[in-house]
Write a structure and sequence with these properties.
By secondary structure, this protein is α/β, with parallel strands linked by helices. It has 21 helices and 30 strands. The structure holds adenosine-5'-monophosphate-propyl ester. Keywords: Acetylation, ATP-binding, Ligase, Magnesium, Metal-binding, Nucleotide-binding.
């Protein structure tokens, strides 16, 4: 448990009360109403979730809301038949939502596109037909490696429409990471673009895919969206395998009847880091995920018909899946989507977008907020942000200082802040304020969402004030497994205590019943909201020909929340040098992607180990954070740590 986090949390007792005006119009407008509905949702989850599911379209109604017989392999809305693309699109076409903007998109160079629900439905239908023409069938896996352009959402919805399973790979991942994911799920197709804009440059996505799939015989077709228009490099198209997106959608009908998929049919896989060297393919299925993202989006973002809702995440992460695509579209909301970075062409880009489109709900990450703080108030102050009515954060604990800044400078002290705790595995938001009905405290995710039975447990499974966060009951948006690894699913999430889900986070519950998330308690590091497993990085380092051993840890970082520090020992005869450090950083970029580069690489003669040979990471953390060393009695060779300390302090 991170003691410093715990102390910060214990000292924070400011409360912020939502305005009467917000309260009056909120979906859930009083704490009493929240508690009453929460109680009902916990006492009778089947009744609660069943009645929410009735708000959506089912081709055939489920036989049973929850089947717990084969726990932890739970089934939700058993034998129900539905389609999430139908619920995100067709369901709205008979209503006033038909002509409303579904996606308002801005490219980094400045282009704008608006797709109404009608337009989006046509595009999705056409692409779904094109996929069918290429032989894609129900249950096929399709990897998507696209920039933040509307075709990314279109591709996901088109897969869902025909019952194909998408796995979106964030466009910052390297060729090797793509290859590993494609092979793990045996993907039949990759959908990519010639390029995508990022900080004024074109990322050459298609070239990266070409390299990635050289060894992937499973990939039969590659669909390429023309985004960069050959600028500044040409895109090679391999006859027979590669197809331009605009060509294949040109030849097809705009009507593609949705597949009537089973509630428990796989909707998508999303790879995320865990505590071993291999990323896990998290499985999400259709019905439960649809109901959960629909309801959480509606209540947490208090969606109203006139909102312009902007989630700044990349769709390559779960936040974008649940709260750019599925949740908001199931609600008929208008989503803003932006392709590029916040500092292009200058540091005012986000605020310019908020002013230009009159954004009302803004959802971003604490690391972004801390970056904006560093850039200074003069950037947001140049723009009119008065359209905003609600702010949100996600991805990591928000420090109270950043929360206060967000509230004052961006929210004008007039917008509730929803600090939403959840994970790739949970599918949707689990602990969060419901705006309007709850007072907020900077740094606290407040109360559990409806149907989420949360507690804090100690190692032996007893309730405690500060300990491990635990979820006591299944919920509809929960992961259904790890792709082709049922054993790992059970061991990772369901074996710490019997029948309780273990998310891997530390937490504290205060005397008002508010939850404070204290960060990961396992070897997963959260760098700028990106999850990176230290074991994954360690195994990459030892694959390098110069490295004998490595230990990677996370340390506190002012802007990124956490940063990575790698301690590496070199093989006999290899000398440490700045060139080697550069080469190792390049190695990480090649193996994972830029975002996983460690803040520092320390060359060590040896690593601190116990007599049984286990690396003592705790001591490495003490060294890196400048603390007095903890207990070193179990250390095999005490001189090792002095040497490391000296090296670390040398800079
Ligand atoms: O440690 C928690 C942290 O992010 C982890 C989940 O990461 P990922 O699966 O990549 O999903 C991120 C977006 C949902 C959690 O185990 N985390 C996420 N949100 C919060 C948070 N920690 C504290 N407060 C949050 N609001």
């Amino acid at each position: 448990m991170d003691r410093q986090n715990l102390e910060t949390v214990l000292m924070e007792n400011r409360k912020f009360v939502p305005s009467d005006e917000f309260k009056k119009r909120a979906h859930i407008s009083s704490l009493d109403e929240y508690f009453t509905r929460y109680r009902k949702s916990i006492d009778d989850p089947e009744k609660f979730w069943g009645s929410i599911a009735e708000e959506l379209h089912w081709f055939k109604k489920w036989d049973r809301v929850l089947n717990e017989e084969d726990a932890p392999f739970f089934k939700w809305f058993e034998n129900g038949k539905t389609n999430i693309s139908y619920n995100c699109l067709d369901r709205h076409l008979e209503t006033g939502v038909r002509n409303k903007a579904a996606i308002i998109w801005e490219g980094e160079p400045g282009e704008q596109r608006v797709l109404t629900y009608w337009d989006l439905a046509r595009e999705v239908n056409k692409f779904a037909n094109a996929l069918r023409n290429l032989g894609i069938k129900h249950g096929d896996r399709i990897a998507i490696y696209l920039p933040m352009i509307p075709e990314l959402a279109i591709a996901m919805l088109a897969c869902a429409r025909i019952g194909a399973i998408h796995t979106v790979i964030f466009a910052g991942f390297s060729a090797e990471s793509i290859r590993d994911r494609v092979l793990d799920c045996d993907a039949r197709m990759v959908i990519t673009a010639d390029g995508g804009w990022r900080r004024g440059n074109v990322l050459q996505l298609k070239n990266i895919v070409d390299e990635a799939i050289q060894e992937c015989d499973c990939v039969k077709d590659v669909v390429v969206v023309k985004r960069a228009h050959g600028d500044p490099f040409p895109c090679h198209i391999k006859e027979g395998r590669d197809h331009w997106y605009h060509r294949i959608i040109d030849e097809v009908s705009a009507v593609c009847p949705p597949a009537e998929v089973d509630s428990e049919d796989l909707l998508f896989l999303l790879y995320t880091s865990g505590t071993t060297g291999k990323p896990k393919g998290i499985i999400h299925t259709t019905g439960g995920y649809m109901v959960f993202t629909y309801l959480t989006a509606k209540y947490v973002f208090d969606l109203r018909p006139e909102d312009v809702y902007w989630c700044t995440a990349d769709i390559g992460w779960v936040t974008g899946h649940s709260y750019i695509v599925y949740g908001p579209l199931a609600n008929g909301a208008t989503c803003l989507m932006y392709e590029g970075t916040p500092n292009w062409p200058d540091k005012g880009r986000f605020w310019n977008i908020i002013e230009k489109y009159g954004v009302t709900v803004f959802y971003t990450a604490p690391t972004a907020i801390r970056t904006f703080m560093k850039w200074g108030e003069r950037w947001p102050e140049k723009y009119d942000l008065s359209s905003l009515r609600l702010l949100g954060t996600v991805g990591e604990p928000i420090n109270p200082e950043a929360w206060i800044w967000y509230n004052k400078i961006i929210g004008g002290e007039n917008c509730p802040i929803v600090d939403t705790w959840w994970q790739t595995e949970t599918g949707g938001i689990m602990i969060t304020p419901l705006p309007g009905c709850m007072d907020t405290k900077p740094g606290s995710a407040t109360y559990p969402f409806f149907g989420i039975d949360v507690t804090v447990l100690n190692e032996s499974g007893e309730e405690t004030e500060a300990g491990f966060l635990a979820i006591k009951k299944p919920w509809p948006g929960m992961l259904r497994g790890i792709y082709s690894d049922a054993k790992r699913y059970k061991e990772t999430y369901w074996s710490k205590w019997p029948d309780v889900y273990f998310p891997g986070d530390g937490a504290k519950k205060d005397s008002d019943g508010y939850y404070w998330i204290l960060g990961r308690v396992d070897d997963v590091v959260n760098v700028s909201g990106h999850r990176i497993g230290t074991a994954e990085l360690e195994s990459i380092f030892v694959e390098h020909e110069t490295i004998a051993e490595s230990a990677v840890i996370g340390i506190k970082h002012e802007v990124k929340g956490q940063a990575l520090v790698a301690f590496v020992s070199l093989k006999e005869g290899v000398k440490a040098s700045p060139e080697l450090e550069g080469e190792l950083k390049h190695w990480v970029v090649k193996k994972i992607g830029k975002f996983a580069i460690p803040e520092r690489i320390i060359f060590a003669a040896d690593l601190p180990k116990t007599r049984s040979g286990k690396i003592m990471r705790r001591l490495l953390r003490d060294v890196s954070e400048g603390r007095a060393l903890g207990n070193i009695t179990t250390l095999a060779d005490a001189a090792v740590i002095d040497d490391l300390k000296a090296k670390y302090e040398e800079g």
